[in-house]
Write a structure and sequence with these properties.
three-stranded mixed sheet; 21 helices; N-(1-d-carboxylethyl)-l-norvaline Dehydrogenase, domain 2; Rossmann fold; alpha/beta; globular; binds D-mannonic acid; about 10% strand; six-stranded parallel sheet
Length: about 475
């Protein structure tokens, strides 16, 4: 079968053609982290806005770690299809917003050149929680090997924060503003990224570091955002199905649910695509949306993944179909909803989560969600748990969720940047000492010192061991 490429565009079924022709676009956006999520979310919002209003907002995508995505997309001229798994069957369409696909390490010169190019107005990032190298206090972990090597003067930085700092330094010569749009699942993600970039610059010892920091403060915006679309890892069967619809082979196919949400803080320093006309919402403060999404959707995902894997389930839909699935999700959500700002329609939100999670057309693997659990748990469960404890309220579901993760670290397959330290926390000592060690790793020494909290988690671990997920109800 012929491979998807510019040359094959004319042969695609009418309804599967891209909305825009990337050959007609310039590059005005640099995206760091060219995974499936970006291609299924920001890239298609941008393509829709481009089709409506133009603007030439082509995206140069830089993969951070894997070269596979570049090896896959480059022969396809950056084209790939997105299949939306709707309840009425799949809809497959090629997206055409990527103007370049590159590897940040291999093409560091091109990355620096683009970041210092006046046509480029936006940088977006999706590098997952671990790609930011945050220390337990939320700042930059300057001892993390890639950050330390970048700070030691490696000319082609391997860390995203290093790439941004170098790019901004080159850009200052132009005095051209830039908006850096973090699209990862972290509370206050804009402010987090701004802090990391500033800390990196401070730690470089560059003679112009102070002037650069001043310039960043006045000319570079870091709006916070909430991004939402469930995008399971693509399987061979997904690629085959997409290729069959297209009539050409698409090795870069991605799949997602029909739902999409994008909430952005309206503090851009530059022009931008009219994403608001593609369903995105621009607001002065994203915090309420961010808290609702991280704590309810992502928090429930992590809980279902820990419980489901231990219960022999494979996908989110399988976990939800288990007798304990929906009741656990609703009990968790009811407890967490109490920690959210007033005025949010959490009832409707939770109902929509049940529908989205149960979508039988999606095969969202629990194992995918369980990856990097230590970083996700800290982001999703600890703030609401601390909030409830500070208010003197009980938190059986959040304590139970932590117990489910504790069991996962004890019994499950760990794919986690802290795997070695997690294993060390289990070596020797009783369950209470392991729980304390794990809480410290999560960046929660306060909870580790809270004997009542530790005892509650230990008790929930024993209850789950004895009674399975229903023990949480
Ligand atoms: C999931 C997210 O893997 C995970 O941790 O919770 O990827 C989730 O599917 C997305 O944030 C949905 O927008």
């Amino acid at each position: 079968m012929t491979r998807l490429s510019y040359a094959a565009l004319g042969s695609l079924p009418e309804e599967s053609r891209p909305l825009v022709d990337p050959r007609a676009l310039g590059t005005r956006i640099v995206h760091l982290g060219l995974g499936a999520f970006h291609r299924a979310h920001q890239a298609v919002h941008t393509e829709q806005a481009e089709a409506l209003y133009g603007g030439g907002w082509g995206i140069a995508g830089f993969s951070q770690r894997s070269r596979a995505v570049v090896d896959t997309l480059a022969p396809q001229d950056g084209l790939y299809s997105l299949t939306l798994r709707t309840p009425d069957g799949p809809r497959t369409r090629v997206a055409g917003q990527l103007t370049e696909v590159r590897h940040a390490g291999d093409d560091a010169t091109r990355l620096r050149e683009l970041l210092a190019c006046p046509d480029v107005a936006l940088v977006t990032t999706t590098v997952t929680e671990k790609g930011y190298w945050r220390a337990a206090d939320g700042g930059l972990d300057t001892t993390a090997p890639p950050v330390a090597a970048d700070l030691a003067g490696r000319p082609d930085p391997a860390s995203v924060v290093g790439q941004l700092a170098h790019g901004l330094r080159a850009r200052r010569a132009l005095d051209a503003p830039l908006s850096v749009v973090c699209c990862d699942n972290m509370a206050d993600n804009g402010r987090v990224l701004e802090r990391l970039v500033r800390e990196f610059v401070q730690a470089t010892g560059w003679p112009d570091a102070d002037r650069l920091l001043e310039w960043i403060a006045t000319r570079v915006a870091f709006p916070s955002t909430v991004v939402d679309r469930i995008v399971p890892a693509t399987t061979g069967a997904d690629r085959d199905a997409a290729s069959a619809v297209l009539g050409v082979r698409d090795e870069g196919a991605v799949v997602g649910e029909p739902f999409t949400q994008w909430v952005l803080q309206d503090t851009f320093a530059t022009d931008r695509p009219r994403w608001e006309d593609t369903g995105a919402l621009f607001v002065p403060d994203v915090a309420p949306y961010q808290m609702m999404k991280l704590r309810l959707l992502n928090g429930a995902h992590t809980l279902l993944s820990c419980l489901g894997l231990a219960d022999g389930r494979e996908t989110v839909a399988d976990a939800l179909a288990a007798p304990w699935g929906e009741p656990v999700l609703r009990a968790y959500a009811a407890e967490v909803a109490g920690t959210l700002p007033a005025g949010l329609d959490t009832g409707a939100y939770v109902d929509s989560l049940v529908t989205r999670f149960a979508n039988p057309a999606m095969r969202h693997l629990l194992r995918q969600i369980a990856t990097d659990g230590s970083l996700k748990v800290a982001e999703r469960w600890l703030p609401p748990l601390r909030g409830l404890r500070a208010a003197g309220h009980p938190a059986p579901m959040l304590t139970g969720a932590l117990a489910a993760w504790v069991r996962h670290t004890r019994d499950g397959d760990l794919d986690d940047p802290m795997a070695d330290r997690i294993r060390a926390a289990w070596a020797g000592g009783g369950p209470a000492s392991s729980v304390r060690g794990l809480l410290v790793l999560l960046g929660a020494p306060d909870l580790a010192e809270d004997a009542e909290c530790v005892a509650a988690i230990v008790e929930r671990v024993a209850a789950l061991d004895a009674g399975g997920p229903s023990a949480l109800l």
